[in-house]
């Protein structure tokens, strides 16, 4: 079976697990348990893999196989995206049936408020950024690949800095206008 087929099967299994959590009103016992599924369902790994493939000759079979193992840098990108999304969409998601977010999981795990949970989750995001920097400094893989992973982390950080700009994409209008219409 090809690696990309395994990747599609993996994300489908993660989506299935999340639907099961939602239907059973299950809240994972720890943020770590939550991230075992939700970081993989964030699709960040799939995005990075497609970016790697689009880079041409620099992306060898060995590089793709490495990418499909969820190495530390890719896990960190997924964590930044997942937790960032959960923090800014938590209130909105409370209005409908949904699976427990990392915010809810953190409040349950530590017996704390949403505000306190967000502070704990920000620490996890900062640790993920430190790990990304560490991976880039040690350059065990071509810097061009590490830069692409870092760029996706930056994008996730931007998309979820103040609100869920992925879901509420109209909030990007001003930024996109400044980049492509009113550029200097």
From TrEMBL:
| The organism's place on the tree of life at top rank | Eukaryota
Does NAD show up as a keyword for this record?
Answer: no
> Which positions fall inside the Terpene synthase metal-binding domain?
5-131
Q: Which InterPro entries does the UniProt entry name for this protein?
A: Isoprenoid_synthase_dom_sf (IPR008949), Terpene_synthase-like (IPR050148), Terpene_synthase_metal-bd (IPR005630)
Task: Share an example GO biological-process annotation for this protein.
Answer: terpenoid biosynthetic process
Has UniProt tagged this entry with the keyword Calcium? no
Query: Where exactly are the transmembrane stretches of this chain?
Result: none
Extract the Pfam families matched here: Terpene_synth_C
Show the GO MF annotations.
magnesium ion binding; terpene synthase activity
The alphabetized UniProt keywords are: Metal-binding
Name of the protein in its database record: Terpene synthase metal-binding domain-containing protein
């Amino acid at each position: 079976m090809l690696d990309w087929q395994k990747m599609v099967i993996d994300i489908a299994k993660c989506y299935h697990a999340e639907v099961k959590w939602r239907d059973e009103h299950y809240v994972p016992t720890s943020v770590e348990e939550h991230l075992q599924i939700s970081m993989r369902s964030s699709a960040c790994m799939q995005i990075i893999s497609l970016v790697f493939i689009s880079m041409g000759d620099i992306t060898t079979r060995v590089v793709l196989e490495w990418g499909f193992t969820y190495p530390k840098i890719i896990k960190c990108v997924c964590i930044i995206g997942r937790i960032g999304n959960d923090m800014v969409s938590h209130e909105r998601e409370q209005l409908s049936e949904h699976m427990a977010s990392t915010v809810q999981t953190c409040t349950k795990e530590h017996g704390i408020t949403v505000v306190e949970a967000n502070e704990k989750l920000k620490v996890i995001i900062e640790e993920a950024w430190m790990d990304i920097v560490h991976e880039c400094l040690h350059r065990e893989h071509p810097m061009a690949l590490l830069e692409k992973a870092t760029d996706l982390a930056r994008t996730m950080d931007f998309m979820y800095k103040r609100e869920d700009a992925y879901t509420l994409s109209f909030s990007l209008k001003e930024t996109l206008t400044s980049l492509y219409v009113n550029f200097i």
